[in-house]
Amino acid sequence: MRNGTATARDAVILGAGLSGLTTALALAEGGLTVSLVDQIDPRTAAGGQSDVRTTAISLSSRRLLTTLGAWDAVASDAEPILDIRVSDFESPFYLHYDHRAAGDEPMGHIVGNTALKASLLDRLAAHGDRVSIIAPGIAAALRRQAGGATLTLDDGQTLTAPVILGADGRRSRLRDLAGIRVTTTDYRQSSIVDTIAHERPHHNLAHERFLPGGPIALLPLRHQRSALVWTERTKVANHIAQLDDATFGAALQERVGDSLGRLTPLGPRQVYPLSLVVAEAYVAERVALVGDAAHAIHPIAGQGFNLGLRDVAALAEVLTDASRLGLDLGSATVLRDYQRRRRFDTMTLVAATDGLTRLFSNDIAPLRTVRGLGLGLVERIPAFKRAAIRHAMGTLGSLPRLLRGEPL
Ligand SMILES: Cc1cc2nc3c(=O)[nH]c(=O)nc-3n(C[C@H](O)[C@H](O)[C@H](O)COP(=O)(O)OP(=O)(O)OC[C@H]3O[C@@H](n4cnc5c(N)ncnc54)[C@H](O)[C@@H]3O)c2cc1C
Fold this sequence. Notes:
Bound molecules: flavin-adenine dinucleotide
Strand content: 25-35%
CATH topology of the largest domain: FAD/NAD(P)-binding domain
Structural class: alpha+beta
Distance between the termini: 22 Å
Number of domains: 2
Protein backbone atom coordinates (compact mmCIF):
# COMPACT_ATOMS: atom_id res chain seq x y z
CA MET A 1 0.00 0.00 0.00
CA ARG A 2 1.45 3.35 -0.97
CA ASN A 3 1.29 6.22 1.46
CA GLY A 4 -0.05 9.52 0.23
CA THR A 5 1.20 9.47 -3.35
CA ALA A 6 -1.02 11.22 -5.88
CA THR A 7 -1.67 8.68 -8.64
CA ALA A 8 -4.34 8.09 -11.28
CA ARG A 9 -7.13 6.10 -9.70
CA ASP A 10 -10.64 4.94 -10.48
CA ALA A 11 -12.17 6.04 -7.17
CA VAL A 12 -11.37 7.82 -3.92
CA ILE A 13 -13.04 6.38 -0.82
CA LEU A 14 -13.43 8.61 2.21
CA GLY A 15 -13.69 6.57 5.44
CA ALA A 16 -11.89 3.33 6.33
CA GLY A 17 -14.43 1.88 8.75
CA LEU A 18 -16.00 -1.49 7.97
CA SER A 19 -17.88 -0.12 4.93
CA GLY A 20 -14.92 1.76 3.44
CA LEU A 21 -12.50 -1.15 3.93
CA THR A 22 -14.92 -3.59 2.28
CA THR A 23 -15.66 -1.18 -0.58
CA ALA A 24 -11.92 -0.77 -1.24
CA LEU A 25 -11.42 -4.53 -1.21
CA ALA A 26 -14.39 -5.23 -3.50
CA LEU A 27 -13.29 -2.60 -6.02
CA ALA A 28 -9.70 -3.87 -5.97
CA GLU A 29 -10.95 -7.44 -6.51
CA GLY A 30 -12.91 -6.06 -9.46
CA GLY A 31 -9.67 -4.68 -10.96
CA LEU A 32 -10.15 -1.00 -10.02
CA THR A 33 -7.55 1.26 -8.39
CA VAL A 34 -8.57 3.23 -5.30
CA SER A 35 -7.28 5.64 -2.66
CA LEU A 36 -8.72 5.07 0.79
CA VAL A 37 -8.62 8.08 3.13
CA ASP A 38 -9.34 8.23 6.87
CA GLN A 39 -8.75 10.75 9.62
CA ILE A 40 -7.40 7.86 11.74
CA ASP A 41 -5.04 5.28 10.26
CA PRO A 42 -7.02 1.99 10.29
CA ARG A 43 -3.73 0.08 10.66
CA THR A 44 -3.07 1.62 14.08
CA ALA A 45 -4.56 0.60 17.44
CA ALA A 46 -6.74 3.73 17.51
CA GLY A 47 -8.15 3.02 14.07
CA GLY A 48 -8.61 -0.72 14.20
CA GLN A 49 -8.91 -1.83 17.78
CA SER A 50 -10.92 0.73 19.70
CA ASP A 51 -14.23 -0.81 18.60
CA VAL A 52 -15.19 -3.51 21.12
CA ARG A 53 -18.49 -4.23 19.34
CA THR A 54 -19.39 -7.45 17.65
CA THR A 55 -21.49 -7.64 14.49
CA ALA A 56 -24.14 -10.17 13.54
CA ILE A 57 -23.09 -11.09 9.99
CA SER A 58 -25.99 -12.43 7.92
CA LEU A 59 -25.70 -15.38 5.55
CA SER A 60 -25.49 -13.21 2.41
CA SER A 61 -22.91 -10.91 4.07
CA ARG A 62 -20.84 -13.99 4.94
CA ARG A 63 -21.00 -15.05 1.29
CA LEU A 64 -19.71 -11.62 0.23
CA LEU A 65 -16.85 -11.71 2.75
CA THR A 66 -15.98 -15.27 1.69
CA THR A 67 -15.88 -14.29 -1.98
CA LEU A 68 -13.59 -11.37 -1.14
CA GLY A 69 -11.31 -13.73 0.84
CA ALA A 70 -11.94 -11.94 4.17
CA TRP A 71 -14.01 -14.63 5.92
CA ASP A 72 -11.47 -17.41 6.55
CA ALA A 73 -9.41 -15.35 8.99
CA VAL A 74 -12.44 -14.65 11.22
CA ALA A 75 -14.25 -17.96 10.72
CA SER A 76 -12.63 -19.85 13.60
CA ASP A 77 -13.83 -17.24 16.13
CA ALA A 78 -17.23 -16.60 14.53
CA GLU A 79 -20.06 -18.16 16.50
CA PRO A 80 -23.14 -19.27 14.54
CA ILE A 81 -26.64 -18.08 15.45
CA LEU A 82 -28.96 -21.04 14.99
CA ASP A 83 -32.08 -19.74 16.71
CA ILE A 84 -33.42 -16.41 17.91
CA ARG A 85 -35.87 -15.89 20.78
CA VAL A 86 -37.71 -12.56 20.98
CA SER A 87 -39.67 -11.70 24.15
CA ASP A 88 -41.43 -8.69 25.63
CA PHE A 89 -41.07 -7.80 29.30
CA GLU A 90 -44.75 -8.19 30.12
CA SER A 91 -46.17 -10.48 27.49
CA PRO A 92 -46.50 -14.24 28.02
CA PHE A 93 -45.89 -14.66 24.26
CA TYR A 94 -42.54 -14.96 22.61
CA LEU A 95 -41.25 -15.55 19.11
CA HIS A 96 -38.87 -18.38 18.40
CA TYR A 97 -37.05 -18.34 15.07
CA ASP A 98 -35.48 -21.68 14.18
CA HIS A 99 -32.95 -21.56 11.32
CA ARG A 100 -34.23 -24.92 10.03
CA ALA A 101 -37.45 -23.17 8.93
CA ALA A 102 -35.42 -21.61 6.09
CA GLY A 103 -32.81 -24.31 5.33
CA ASP A 104 -29.67 -25.77 6.90
CA GLU A 105 -27.49 -22.67 7.13
CA PRO A 106 -27.09 -20.68 10.39
CA MET A 107 -29.05 -17.40 10.38
CA GLY A 108 -25.83 -15.51 10.91
CA HIS A 109 -22.53 -15.42 12.79
CA ILE A 110 -21.29 -13.13 15.54
CA VAL A 111 -17.89 -11.65 14.68
CA GLY A 112 -15.69 -9.14 16.52
CA ASN A 113 -15.41 -5.81 14.67
CA THR A 114 -11.68 -5.60 15.39
CA ALA A 115 -11.03 -9.06 13.95
CA LEU A 116 -13.09 -8.24 10.87
CA LYS A 117 -11.23 -4.97 10.27
CA ALA A 118 -7.88 -6.78 10.66
CA SER A 119 -8.94 -9.41 8.15
CA LEU A 120 -10.09 -6.78 5.61
CA LEU A 121 -6.79 -4.90 6.05
CA ASP A 122 -4.81 -8.12 5.49
CA ARG A 123 -6.67 -8.75 2.24
CA LEU A 124 -6.14 -5.12 1.17
CA ALA A 125 -2.40 -5.51 1.74
CA ALA A 126 -2.45 -8.25 -0.90
CA HIS A 127 -3.82 -5.63 -3.33
CA GLY A 128 -1.03 -3.13 -2.63
CA ASP A 129 -0.73 -2.27 -6.31
CA ARG A 130 -4.38 -1.21 -6.51
CA VAL A 131 -5.07 0.34 -3.08
CA SER A 132 -3.29 3.24 -1.42
CA ILE A 133 -4.19 4.15 2.15
CA ILE A 134 -3.89 7.84 2.96
CA ALA A 135 -4.09 8.46 6.70
CA PRO A 136 -4.42 10.55 8.69
CA GLY A 137 -6.37 12.67 6.20
CA ILE A 138 -9.47 14.77 6.80
CA ALA A 139 -11.78 15.81 3.98
CA ALA A 140 -11.82 19.59 3.67
CA ALA A 141 -13.25 20.49 0.24
CA LEU A 142 -14.83 18.95 -2.84
CA ARG A 143 -14.71 20.29 -6.39
CA ARG A 144 -16.46 18.80 -9.38
CA GLN A 145 -15.08 19.43 -12.86
CA ALA A 146 -15.53 17.94 -16.33
CA GLY A 147 -14.63 14.25 -16.18
CA GLY A 148 -13.89 14.05 -12.46
CA ALA A 149 -14.00 15.33 -8.92
CA THR A 150 -11.25 16.50 -6.59
CA LEU A 151 -11.21 15.96 -2.84
CA THR A 152 -8.92 18.28 -0.94
CA LEU A 153 -7.63 17.12 2.43
CA ASP A 154 -6.94 19.41 5.38
CA ASP A 155 -3.18 19.23 4.73
CA GLY A 156 -3.76 20.58 1.22
CA GLN A 157 -3.27 17.26 -0.55
CA THR A 158 -5.65 16.82 -3.52
CA LEU A 159 -7.08 13.54 -4.82
CA THR A 160 -8.81 13.40 -8.20
CA ALA A 161 -10.90 10.53 -9.59
CA PRO A 162 -14.01 10.01 -11.73
CA VAL A 163 -16.00 9.28 -8.57
CA ILE A 164 -15.61 10.01 -4.83
CA LEU A 165 -17.26 7.52 -2.46
CA GLY A 166 -18.43 8.57 1.01
CA ALA A 167 -18.00 5.76 3.56
CA ASP A 168 -17.36 8.27 6.32
CA GLY A 169 -20.12 7.27 8.69
CA ARG A 170 -23.28 8.81 10.12
CA ARG A 171 -21.82 12.34 10.32
CA SER A 172 -20.44 12.12 6.77
CA ARG A 173 -18.46 15.18 5.74
CA LEU A 174 -18.54 14.16 2.08
CA ARG A 175 -22.35 14.06 2.22
CA ASP A 176 -22.34 17.69 3.41
CA LEU A 177 -19.73 18.76 0.87
CA ALA A 178 -21.81 17.18 -1.91
CA GLY A 179 -24.96 18.97 -0.70
CA ILE A 180 -26.91 15.79 0.10
CA ARG A 181 -29.47 16.53 2.82
CA VAL A 182 -30.33 14.13 5.66
CA THR A 183 -33.28 13.37 7.89
CA THR A 184 -32.20 12.76 11.49
CA THR A 185 -34.12 11.43 14.49
CA ASP A 186 -32.48 11.34 17.91
CA TYR A 187 -33.79 8.19 19.64
CA ARG A 188 -32.63 9.51 23.03
CA GLN A 189 -31.40 5.97 23.59
CA SER A 190 -27.88 4.56 23.90
CA SER A 191 -26.57 1.01 23.64
CA ILE A 192 -24.19 -0.35 26.24
CA VAL A 193 -21.95 -3.08 24.83
CA ASP A 194 -20.06 -5.61 26.94
CA THR A 195 -19.06 -9.28 26.89
CA ILE A 196 -20.89 -11.56 29.32
CA ALA A 197 -19.76 -14.95 30.63
CA HIS A 198 -22.57 -17.26 31.77
CA GLU A 199 -22.93 -20.45 33.78
CA ARG A 200 -25.01 -22.37 31.21
CA PRO A 201 -24.36 -22.85 27.48
CA HIS A 202 -26.26 -20.65 25.02
CA HIS A 203 -26.83 -23.47 22.51
CA ASN A 204 -26.30 -20.85 19.77
CA LEU A 205 -29.55 -19.15 20.68
CA ALA A 206 -29.64 -15.33 20.42
CA HIS A 207 -31.96 -13.60 22.91
CA GLU A 208 -33.66 -10.28 22.34
CA ARG A 209 -35.84 -9.01 25.17
CA PHE A 210 -37.85 -5.81 24.83
CA LEU A 211 -38.09 -3.54 27.86
CA PRO A 212 -39.64 -0.06 28.10
CA GLY A 213 -36.20 1.62 27.91
CA GLY A 214 -35.13 -0.40 24.85
CA PRO A 215 -34.17 -3.93 23.79
CA ILE A 216 -31.50 -6.09 25.44
CA ALA A 217 -29.76 -8.53 23.10
CA LEU A 218 -27.46 -11.38 24.15
CA LEU A 219 -25.70 -12.83 21.12
CA PRO A 220 -23.78 -16.13 21.23
CA LEU A 221 -19.97 -16.05 21.35
CA ARG A 222 -17.36 -18.78 21.71
CA HIS A 223 -16.45 -20.23 25.12
CA GLN A 224 -19.81 -19.88 26.91
CA ARG A 225 -19.94 -16.11 26.48
CA SER A 226 -22.41 -13.75 24.84
CA ALA A 227 -22.11 -10.27 23.37
CA LEU A 228 -24.40 -7.85 25.16
CA VAL A 229 -26.14 -4.92 23.44
CA TRP A 230 -28.24 -3.28 26.17
CA THR A 231 -30.25 -0.33 24.93
CA GLU A 232 -31.71 2.14 27.43
CA ARG A 233 -32.75 5.78 27.61
CA THR A 234 -29.45 7.68 27.30
CA LYS A 235 -29.44 9.11 30.84
CA VAL A 236 -30.10 5.67 32.33
CA ALA A 237 -27.58 3.98 30.02
CA ASN A 238 -24.82 6.40 31.04
CA HIS A 239 -25.54 5.65 34.69
CA ILE A 240 -25.75 1.86 34.27
CA ALA A 241 -22.53 1.75 32.26
CA GLN A 242 -20.65 3.20 35.24
CA LEU A 243 -21.81 0.50 37.69
CA ASP A 244 -19.22 -1.89 39.10
CA ASP A 245 -19.24 -5.36 37.54
CA ALA A 246 -21.21 -7.09 40.30
CA THR A 247 -23.99 -4.46 40.34
CA PHE A 248 -24.07 -4.33 36.52
CA GLY A 249 -24.34 -8.13 36.32
CA ALA A 250 -27.14 -8.19 38.89
CA ALA A 251 -29.08 -5.41 37.11
CA LEU A 252 -28.76 -7.31 33.83
CA GLN A 253 -29.81 -10.60 35.43
CA GLU A 254 -32.89 -8.95 36.89
CA ARG A 255 -33.95 -7.87 33.38
CA VAL A 256 -33.16 -10.99 31.33
CA GLY A 257 -33.82 -13.77 33.88
CA ASP A 258 -31.68 -16.80 34.61
CA SER A 259 -32.00 -19.06 31.55
CA LEU A 260 -28.21 -18.68 31.04
CA GLY A 261 -27.45 -19.04 34.77
CA ARG A 262 -25.34 -16.46 36.58
CA LEU A 263 -24.13 -13.61 34.31
CA THR A 264 -20.64 -12.14 34.73
CA PRO A 265 -19.63 -9.01 32.77
CA LEU A 266 -16.10 -9.30 31.39
CA GLY A 267 -15.71 -5.81 29.84
CA PRO A 268 -14.56 -3.60 28.32
CA ARG A 269 -17.85 -1.65 28.35
CA GLN A 270 -18.71 1.06 25.83
CA VAL A 271 -21.77 3.27 25.25
CA TYR A 272 -23.09 4.23 21.78
CA PRO A 273 -25.73 7.01 21.47
CA LEU A 274 -28.37 6.08 18.88
CA SER A 275 -29.99 8.11 16.14
CA LEU A 276 -31.56 7.46 12.78
CA VAL A 277 -29.79 9.27 9.94
CA VAL A 278 -31.09 8.81 6.41
CA ALA A 279 -29.59 10.60 3.41
CA GLU A 280 -32.18 11.99 1.02
CA ALA A 281 -30.16 10.66 -1.94
CA TYR A 282 -27.49 7.99 -2.35
CA VAL A 283 -25.71 9.97 -5.05
CA ALA A 284 -24.88 13.49 -6.19
CA GLU A 285 -22.71 14.75 -9.05
CA ARG A 286 -19.66 12.40 -9.06
CA VAL A 287 -20.35 11.29 -5.47
CA ALA A 288 -21.94 8.14 -4.01
CA LEU A 289 -22.56 7.20 -0.37
CA VAL A 290 -22.03 3.78 1.22
CA GLY A 291 -22.91 2.33 4.64
CA ASP A 292 -23.75 4.57 7.60
CA ALA A 293 -23.04 7.68 5.51
CA ALA A 294 -26.20 6.78 3.54
CA HIS A 295 -28.24 5.31 6.43
CA ALA A 296 -27.44 4.86 10.11
CA ILE A 297 -30.19 2.79 11.70
CA HIS A 298 -31.11 1.53 15.19
CA PRO A 299 -29.24 -1.68 16.14
CA ILE A 300 -32.57 -3.28 17.21
CA ALA A 301 -32.30 -5.86 14.41
CA GLY A 302 -28.48 -6.03 14.13
CA GLN A 303 -28.67 -5.09 10.45
CA GLY A 304 -26.78 -1.78 10.00
CA PHE A 305 -23.55 -3.19 8.58
CA ASN A 306 -25.39 -5.92 6.66
CA LEU A 307 -27.31 -3.13 4.95
CA GLY A 308 -23.99 -1.38 4.28
CA LEU A 309 -22.60 -4.56 2.72
CA ARG A 310 -25.61 -4.66 0.41
CA ASP A 311 -24.55 -1.15 -0.72
CA VAL A 312 -20.97 -2.37 -1.22
CA ALA A 313 -22.12 -5.34 -3.32
CA ALA A 314 -24.35 -3.22 -5.56
CA LEU A 315 -21.83 -0.39 -5.93
CA ALA A 316 -18.92 -2.72 -6.71
CA GLU A 317 -21.03 -4.50 -9.33
CA VAL A 318 -22.19 -1.25 -10.98
CA LEU A 319 -18.68 0.26 -11.03
CA THR A 320 -16.79 -2.83 -12.22
CA ASP A 321 -19.39 -3.51 -14.95
CA ALA A 322 -19.13 0.15 -16.05
CA SER A 323 -15.33 -0.05 -16.06
CA ARG A 324 -15.38 -3.20 -18.24
CA LEU A 325 -17.64 -1.38 -20.70
CA GLY A 326 -15.28 1.61 -20.73
CA LEU A 327 -17.91 3.93 -19.23
CA ASP A 328 -17.24 7.00 -17.08
CA LEU A 329 -17.47 5.64 -13.50
CA GLY A 330 -18.79 8.92 -12.16
CA SER A 331 -21.40 9.55 -14.85
CA ALA A 332 -24.95 10.30 -13.74
CA THR A 333 -26.23 7.15 -15.51
CA VAL A 334 -23.85 4.84 -13.63
CA LEU A 335 -24.47 6.46 -10.24
CA ARG A 336 -28.26 6.54 -10.74
CA ASP A 337 -28.15 2.81 -11.46
CA TYR A 338 -26.51 2.30 -8.03
CA GLN A 339 -29.12 4.45 -6.31
CA ARG A 340 -31.98 2.67 -8.08
CA ARG A 341 -30.71 -0.71 -6.85
CA ARG A 342 -30.41 0.40 -3.24
CA ARG A 343 -33.25 2.73 -2.33
CA PHE A 344 -36.11 0.28 -1.85
CA ASP A 345 -34.18 -2.17 0.34
CA THR A 346 -32.82 0.67 2.48
CA MET A 347 -36.16 2.42 2.96
CA THR A 348 -37.82 -0.91 3.87
CA LEU A 349 -35.25 -1.62 6.59
CA VAL A 350 -35.28 1.98 7.85
CA ALA A 351 -39.08 1.82 8.22
CA ALA A 352 -38.99 -1.63 9.85
CA THR A 353 -36.29 -0.82 12.43
CA ASP A 354 -37.76 2.60 13.21
CA GLY A 355 -41.27 1.13 13.57
CA LEU A 356 -40.07 -1.68 15.84
CA THR A 357 -38.14 0.77 18.01
CA ARG A 358 -41.22 2.98 18.48
CA LEU A 359 -43.55 0.04 19.08
CA PHE A 360 -41.37 -1.73 21.63
CA SER A 361 -39.50 1.05 23.48
CA ASN A 362 -42.35 2.25 25.66
CA ASP A 363 -44.75 1.21 28.38
CA ILE A 364 -48.01 2.54 26.94
CA ALA A 365 -50.85 0.09 27.75
CA PRO A 366 -52.57 -0.20 24.29
CA LEU A 367 -49.17 -0.70 22.60
CA ARG A 368 -48.31 -3.38 25.14
CA THR A 369 -51.43 -5.25 24.05
CA VAL A 370 -50.60 -4.85 20.34
CA ARG A 371 -47.08 -6.14 21.00
CA GLY A 372 -48.31 -9.18 22.87
CA LEU A 373 -50.86 -10.02 20.22
CA GLY A 374 -48.33 -9.38 17.44
CA LEU A 375 -45.74 -11.74 18.93
CA GLY A 376 -48.38 -14.43 19.49
CA LEU A 377 -49.73 -14.05 15.96
CA VAL A 378 -46.39 -14.11 14.12
CA GLU A 379 -45.35 -17.15 16.19
CA ARG A 380 -48.35 -19.03 14.78
CA ILE A 381 -47.92 -18.10 11.08
CA PRO A 382 -45.03 -20.11 9.58
CA ALA A 383 -44.95 -18.12 6.29
CA PHE A 384 -44.41 -14.83 8.23
CA LYS A 385 -41.65 -16.39 10.25
CA ARG A 386 -39.93 -17.85 7.20
CA ALA A 387 -39.99 -14.46 5.45
CA ALA A 388 -38.58 -12.75 8.58
CA ILE A 389 -35.79 -15.34 8.84
CA ARG A 390 -34.89 -14.90 5.14
CA HIS A 391 -34.85 -11.13 5.60
CA ALA A 392 -32.50 -11.45 8.59
CA MET A 393 -30.30 -13.80 6.53
CA GLY A 394 -30.23 -11.23 3.72
CA THR A 395 -31.36 -13.76 1.12
CA LEU A 396 -34.68 -12.16 0.09
CA GLY A 397 -35.06 -10.52 -3.31
CA SER A 398 -32.70 -10.36 -6.28
CA LEU A 399 -29.14 -10.04 -5.02
CA PRO A 400 -25.94 -8.67 -6.59
CA ARG A 401 -23.28 -11.25 -7.45
CA LEU A 402 -21.11 -10.82 -4.32
CA LEU A 403 -24.08 -11.50 -2.01
CA ARG A 404 -24.79 -14.70 -3.93
CA GLY A 405 -21.20 -15.78 -3.34
CA GLU A 406 -20.13 -15.14 -6.95
CA PRO A 407 -17.07 -13.11 -7.97
CA LEU A 408 -17.51 -9.70 -9.60
C1 LIG B 1 -24.31 -0.85 19.47
C2 LIG B 1 -24.31 -1.19 18.02
C3 LIG B 1 -24.42 -2.52 17.63
C4 LIG B 1 -24.46 -2.85 16.27
N1 LIG B 1 -24.59 -4.16 15.90
C5 LIG B 1 -24.69 -4.48 14.60
C6 LIG B 1 -24.89 -5.84 14.17
O1 LIG B 1 -24.97 -6.76 14.98
N2 LIG B 1 -24.99 -6.10 12.83
C7 LIG B 1 -24.90 -5.11 11.90
O2 LIG B 1 -25.00 -5.39 10.70
N3 LIG B 1 -24.68 -3.81 12.27
C8 LIG B 1 -24.59 -3.48 13.58
N4 LIG B 1 -24.37 -2.18 13.94
C9 LIG B 1 -24.18 -1.15 12.90
C10 LIG B 1 -22.72 -1.11 12.41
O3 LIG B 1 -21.84 -1.07 13.49
C11 LIG B 1 -22.51 0.11 11.51
O4 LIG B 1 -23.49 0.09 10.51
C12 LIG B 1 -21.12 0.08 10.87
O5 LIG B 1 -20.11 0.01 11.82
C13 LIG B 1 -20.94 1.33 10.02
O6 LIG B 1 -19.68 1.29 9.42
P1 LIG B 1 -19.22 2.46 8.43
O7 LIG B 1 -17.89 2.04 7.94
O8 LIG B 1 -20.32 2.74 7.44
O9 LIG B 1 -19.13 3.77 9.33
P2 LIG B 1 -18.10 4.10 10.52
O10 LIG B 1 -17.79 2.90 11.31
O11 LIG B 1 -18.68 5.27 11.24
O12 LIG B 1 -16.75 4.54 9.78
C14 LIG B 1 -16.57 5.83 9.24
C15 LIG B 1 -15.10 6.08 9.04
O13 LIG B 1 -14.95 7.37 8.40
C16 LIG B 1 -13.92 8.11 9.03
N5 LIG B 1 -14.25 9.55 8.85
C17 LIG B 1 -15.34 10.20 9.28
N6 LIG B 1 -15.32 11.49 8.91
C18 LIG B 1 -14.17 11.68 8.22
C19 LIG B 1 -13.57 12.80 7.57
N7 LIG B 1 -14.15 14.03 7.55
N8 LIG B 1 -12.36 12.63 6.96
C20 LIG B 1 -11.75 11.40 6.98
N9 LIG B 1 -12.29 10.31 7.57
C21 LIG B 1 -13.48 10.44 8.17
C22 LIG B 1 -13.97 7.65 10.49
O14 LIG B 1 -12.72 7.86 11.13
C23 LIG B 1 -14.31 6.16 10.34
O15 LIG B 1 -13.17 5.34 10.24
C24 LIG B 1 -24.35 -1.82 15.29
C25 LIG B 1 -24.23 -0.48 15.68
C26 LIG B 1 -24.21 -0.17 17.04
C27 LIG B 1 -24.09 1.29 17.45
